[in-house]
TrEMBL record:
Gene3D superfamilies documented for this protein: Beta Polymerase, domain 2
Pfam families in the cross-refs: GrpB
Stored InterPro entries: GrpB/CoaE, NT_sf
Annotated organism of origin: Polluticaenibacter yanchengensis
Protein name, entry field: GrpB family protein
């Protein structure tokens, strides 16, 4: 499959604010911190037109309350990813069209992901839930802020993405794996920079 890829669009920030407001209402009991991350959060960087949202909660008990609070809404909970990333809870926010197709609310451990959910046209957002100020929270925030302030790194990342999106991929995870070496290197640079400049 070819992944959708668009030049930076300022409406991505507006889309994030709408999603953020919705999530703050749905998760009001937890008083979460909701942040825009990923390529759609960096002005000038091309991206898949799917908003990456990072939700911060206070502890692991709250982490496991989020799937219950979002159940029955236009979200699909990828419980199956908890095995590989126990520190994160991951959700897709679906378009209205996708939600009407009646996908399961949870993809359980051991279950296959329905083929249609690999279609990025059905996705509005990727939602990552983590414990606030954990190591994994920090690397996402640091990488975002680092890209926002280091145009030379954005230029290199843009070139890599432009090269990769010309290829066929089984799914978005394969595409992410192809970016992994660059992202891991620059995430480490970002964390070092963040700890010296922001923390």
């Amino acid at each position: 499959m070819k992944l959708p890829f668009q030049a930076y669009n300022p409406t991505w920030e507006t889309q994030f604010e709408i999603i953020k407001n919705e999530l703050q209402i749905e998760l009001a009991l937890l008083q979460p911190q909701v942040e825009h991350i990923g390529s759609t959060s960096v002005k000038g960087l091309s991206a898949k037109p799917v908003i990456d949202v990072l939700i911060g909660v206070n502890n692991e008990i709250e982490l496991d309350k989020v799937p219950l609070l979002l159940a029955g809404k236009d979200y699909v909970y990828y419980e199956k990813y908890n095995e590989d990333m126990p520190y994160r809870r991951f959700f897709l926010k679906l378009t209205d069209t996708a939600a009407q197709l009646g996908f399961p609310g949870t993809i359980h451990i051991g279950e296959e992901i329905p083929d249609q959910l690999h279609d990025h046209d059905f996705r509005i957002a990727h939602i990552h839930v983590m414990v606030l100020h954990s190591r994994h929270w920090l690397r996402h925030i640091a990488f975002r802020d680092y890209l926002r302030t280091h145009p030379e790194v954005v230029k290199e990342y843009q070139a890599l993405k432009e090269h990769l999106v010309k290829q066929e991929w089984q799914d978005g995870n394969d595409y992410n794996d192809a970016k992994d070496a660059f992202v891991k290197r620059e995430e480490q640079n970002a964390v070092n920079w963040y700890q010296h400049n922001k923390a």
